[in-house]
Amino acid sequence: QGMTELNGCAPLKISVLGPYTFSIGDTSKFGDYITGGIVTQVKMSKTVSFKPLEVAEKEPEFLTSDFAKFDHPATLHVAFKALYQYREANGGNLPRPWNEEDAQKFLQLCKSIDGNVLDNLILTFAKICSGNTCPLDAAMGGLVAQEVLKACSGKFTPIYQWLYYDAIECLPDNGVEEADAQPIGSRYDSQIAIFGKKFQEKIGDIKYFIVGAGAIGCELIKNFAMIGAGVHQSMYPKDRFKFSVISNHVPRTRQRKSLIIIVKYKNRIKILKLFSLAMLSPNRNYDQILRKTFMANQ
């Protein structure tokens, strides 16, 4: 009641004064406020204009993804610009994995573009830029997909101009020997180029048992498979898999859970089925069910 000028008025810009209070500005020309009232939040549209690529490349604006590395984006911006020039000058080849000579050559190229780059970051970039790792690809793919949805829907604020992300803290403190980063004809060669063959062998020997295949669980299982985690291990001795053993050890709950079973059978890896843990029963012959399921999918 009172202050009727606010009823049906155009959206007003507010100032937040506290957790439970805000101001709508000057109300001296309005009538007296008595009591009550309902406030509706209105999100105003915003037009975002982007610079042309030629201008943005020369006058970059960065979105900071890690405030502990606030000085990295500018150096990485120069590194990616130099990478295209390096490829053109070297027949389409990138710097060799963990090769000091190529890294120094790449550093000099970057310094010819901008003398204020971080030397150590450029050298690390040069030594691993020919490699690739699936979990980081998945993260960047998800980010790009979000930006596409923003562009199509017109909702949420898009990334403005440039975003550079690095995870160099994942690298060994003392780096990797060049001989250890050479390709071996494996599907994991692009990952070996970053972390080395010794590291790849270590993650191939790890043992994990994953229960729970929801949205995050499925993504985790996929990333484990793509990086080669546990590929040297069998699930049980003598490659003998008994589903009934799992049903006896998985705790029962009223909440419906899910479980993805990955079985090694005759030296082949296959995802057999998505089971609900609520349906597990020790009285059922799961070994026979799994065997029939696997053979039916050959």
TrEMBL record:
Family annotation (Pfam families): E1_4HB, E1_FCCH, ThiF
One GO MF term: ubiquitin activating enzyme activity
An individual GO BP term: ubiquitin-dependent protein catabolic process
Annotated ranges, domain Ubiquitin-activating enzyme E1 FCCH: 1-43
Matches recorded under InterPro entries: E1_4HB, E1_FCCH, ThiF/MoeB/HesA, ThiF_NAD_FAD-bd, Ubiquitin-activating_enz, UBQ-activ_enz_E1_CS
PROSITE patterns, per database record: UBIQUITIN_ACTIVAT_1 (PS00536)
Residue ranges annotated for the Ubiquitin-activating enzyme E1 four-helix bundle domain, each copy included: 44-113
Domain THIF-type NAD/FAD binding fold: 188-230
One annotated Gene Ontology cellular component of this protein: nucleus
Protein name, as recorded: Putative ubiquitin activating enzyme-1
Gene source species: Sarcophaga peregrina
